[in-house]
Specification:
Strand order of the largest sheet: 13-14-15-17-18-19-20-21
Mean pLDDT: 75
Distance between the termini: 65 Å
Strand content: 15-25%
Number of strands: 22
Low-confidence stretches: 1-67, 96-100, 102-134, 213-231
Number of helices: 13
Helix content: 25-40%
Length: 560
């Protein structure tokens, strides 16, 4: 296979170790070799890019070409125009949610640089979500049913959009009439991605078609192994990364597919700047400041195996990443990352906590205004009546929710005004064993009642987080907590939410309307949640430090 493409070089990662209790909000990244060892991709959290403080919708001119002329005359950065065509009635693996809904949800949450969103059908959520996106990407979603309809105006609108598109995304398009129409009307689009679609729809990158063998509807599944120039090898690696991300079947990795293509073939994606390698400056920093720690790691079998294990993980497989850390966790590995990353920031990274979406905390509980003490008591939850505060039912992050048996422990410390959070959870090691892990976060009140600042040192790196109590049922039968945070020296920021209950079971049906409303305030759909496996959870390492105290104003009865 020969690809006549000239993409920007595929970004090498600025790595680190997967660390904290929950996972990053996008995806892992490639690893960079430094001589004979690897610095792995950092943190288990889903990454989100920072969003600008102003969101607008680009004015609609007569044609796509006219809009481009106006943009160029104004000296504005080029828009990235994406058109998605989804097979009518197709269902995704995400709890059977329609693909068209997922694509629209994905657009609304694409805070990756300059983004504006145009939906086929405007809805009430658009205004809210535009507050935390920028104005340089544009995406519209169509179903292929319009191609068989008599709606000439809508078909012509799709043709106009395709004429100015940078990327065409075909999802579950199998109708042969639709396939022929798309082939005819997409010839000038430089980048075409096809997933779960007819094999006659071909992928194009940088203006050239990519020849692959389809497997289970995924045209990226198999690449021929033949000698290729370096740039073409980079393009093939990019295709492989996109394919692996797609196969994870979650909204964040689907968005990541688009980010990789945009960054390589259209324009730099700001959030990916933290993934660019620094070359010998990183190595010099490590040798100059952390020579003993590097040598100690290379001479220690567990630390060395952890680095080798991380090198084998897919760039977007956060579960694999953390399995390596859990399997080979050691003080030497922590000393290595503490020196190289946290103390000396040899990778020169600087991530910040995302400001958007801003989620309002609940204002009242049981008819009373929420106070700082009462909000802390809601975190403490059932602890005292049970051996834990809450058990996690589900969360938005698929990597995080791969971990079974998640317990939350919130409590007041021995020192005056201190408050702590300790998650306890299981991890499956590479040998197939389930092992318990426990982390410890310092918690401080934020300015707004019901919001808190968390911080943790995990695997040698500090993460800072902003938590919000979104809602808690009056009977404490469930709660929803939203978080956003950053591992600064890992170059990663993230957001997410966890649904909790005393038993780990999903709230009963009569609570669903209130729960869905709470999720909406977080800009999360119910089908985005991934359930935690709470089946076999015997022997969790619970218990509290001596001198701890629990509730201040709430009284929690014993629960049997």
């Amino acid at each position: 296979m020969i690809l006549n493409v000239k993409p920007q070089a595929l970004l090498e990662s600025k790595p680190g170790f997967p660390l904290n209790r929950r996972f990053i909000q996008i995806t892992g990244y490639p690893y960079r070799r430094i001589h004979r060892f690897i610095i792995p991709a950092f943190s288990r959290r889903k990454i989100l890019p920072s969003a600008s403080k102003k969101a607008t919708i680009t004015a609609v001119l007569g044609t796509e070409a006219e809009r481009s002329e106006v943009e160029q005359s104004r000296g504005a950065p080029p828009l990235v125009r994406i058109v998605a065509v989804v097979g009518d009635g197709s269902v995704s693996p995400l709890k059977s949610a329609p693909w068209v809904e997922i694509e629209r949800q994905k657009n609304a949450k694409s805070a990756f640089g300059h983004i504006s969103i145009i939906f086929q059908h405007e809805n009430a959520e658009l205004a809210q979500r535009l507050k935390w996106v920028d104005d340089g990407y544009e995406m519209q979603v169509f179903t292929d049913s319009i191609l068989q309809s008599n709606d000439k105006e809508t078909v012509e609108n799709l043709q106009r959009k395709l004429s100015g598109a940078n990327i065409l995304l075909n999802i579950a398009v199998t109708n042969q009439e639709s396939v022929k129409w798309i082939q005819t009307n997409s010839q000038n689009i430089p980048n075409i991605l096809c997933f779960d679609s007819s094999p006659t729809l071909r992928t194009k990158l940088g203006g050239s078609f990519v020849q692959t063998e389809p497997k289970k509807g995924n045209i990226f599944s198999k690449l021929p192994i033949i000698p290729q120039p370096q740039k073409i090898k980079g393009s093939m690696e990019l295709v492989k990364t996109v394919s692996e991300a797609w196969e994870r079947q979650n909204t964040d990795d689907i968005r990541f597919c688009l980010l990789v293509i945009i960054n390589a073939y259209i324009k730099p994606v700001p959030i990916l700047k933290n993934l660019r390698a620094q070359g010998f400056s990183t190595l010099n920093c490590m040798i100059k400041n952390c020579g003993p720690q590097v040598l100690k790691c290379l001479l220690d079998s567990d630390c060395r195996n952890a680095l080798q294990c991380l090198n084998k993980c897919s760039p977007v497989d956060q579960v694999c990443n953390y399995q390596c850390i859990a399997s080979y966790e050691s003080p030497i590995l922590e000393e290595f990352s503490l020196c190289v990353l946290q103390k000396h920031n040899c990778l020169c990274l600087d991530a910040k906590i995302p400001e958007k979406p801003y989620v309002e905390p609940m204002a009242r509980f049981r008819g009373e205004d929420l106070s700082h003490k009462l909000a802390e008591d809601l975190f403490v939850g059932w602890l005292g009546g049970l051996d834990w505060s809450w058990r996690v039912v589900s969360g938005q992050n698929p990597a995080y929710d791969q971990f079974p048996c998640q317990y939350q422990l919130f409590y007041r410390g021995k020192a005056r005004g201190s408050f702590w959070y300790e998650p306890v959870f299981q991890v499956r090691t590479l040998d197939g064993d389930l092992v318990w892990r426990r982390r410890k976060y310092r918690v401080k009140r934020a300015k707004v009642v019901g919001t808190f600042n968390f911080s943790v040192l995990d695997s040698g790196v500090v993460s800072s987080e902003f938590w919000t109590i979104v809602d808690v049922a009056d009977d404490l039968s469930w709660g929803l907590f939203h978080y956003s945070g950053a591992a600064r020296v890992a170059g990663q920021s993230y957001t997410g939410a966890v649904l909790v209950s005393p038993t780990g079971e999903y709230p009963i049906e009569r609570e669903r309307e209130r729960l869905v409303a709470a999720l909406d305030r977080c800009c999360i759909k119910e089908w985005e949640l991934f359930n935690v496996d709470n089946c076999s959870c015997s022997g969790p390492p619970l218990g509290l430090p001596e001198g701890s105290s629990l509730h201040s104003v709430l009284r929690i009865p014993a629960k049997t």
